[in-house]
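Project channel, design review

CF: Before we commit to the Kosakonia cowanii JCM 10956 = DSM 18146 constructs, I'd like one complete example in the thread so the newer folks can see what an input/output pair looks like. Taking Probable nicotinate-nucleotide adenylyltransferase.
RD: sounds good, go ahead.
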Amino acid sequence: MVDMKQLQALFGGTFDPVHYGHLKPVEALANLIGLSKVTIMPNNVPPHRPQPEANSQQRKTMVELAIADKPLFTLDERELMRNEPSYSADTLQAWRQESGEKAPLAFIIGQDSLLTFHSWHRYDTILDNCHLIVCRRPGYALTMSEEAHQRWLDAHLTTRVEDLHTLPAGKIYLAETPWFDISATQIRQRLAHDEPCDDLLPAAVLEYIHQQGLYR
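CF: and here is what came back for Probable nicotinate-nucleotide adenylyltransferase:
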């Protein structure tokens, strides 16, 4: 009998701001593969993209508001404590050390991130510490751009959900999650032009954004 309570997943991002395009696919994923806990980890200084407009405390508060009524999610603020770039490889290595050798751990990414995965800092260590769960995104290729990278993907791919629950790390699972055409950039642009965003993010987050005068 597979223990479906064991698998823990980590979901990182800038969350500037957090929105339904982050939350709803992960909620669907949890139902799809039997996840009982997803840890949201906001980045502090993302190395591969422009720096966030909202500060660390504001982004932390927005995530707290977004997940207050969602027991699936917990918040981990360790990366917000750092002043240097947040590298997923380092965080996942620390998470593995804290969780022990046998705990099944997974890192949730989007399909766009999988296609650039080989450019990540110490990418080759990540599957030593966790599984990768990839949320499908329309419009993105299903194959890697280089043959060597495709061989790497093929070697680690699994279609068996049981593998995620019974093995501690090392597998890549492509999940058929729903796609919500929402981006933080789109939300920031709409807010800057006083356009409504009620359907894009939780009401408590939107209220906080207005209180703080963010994205004006």
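RD: helpful, thanks. The first helix runs from residue 20 to 33.
CF: The first strand starts at residue 8 and ends at 13.
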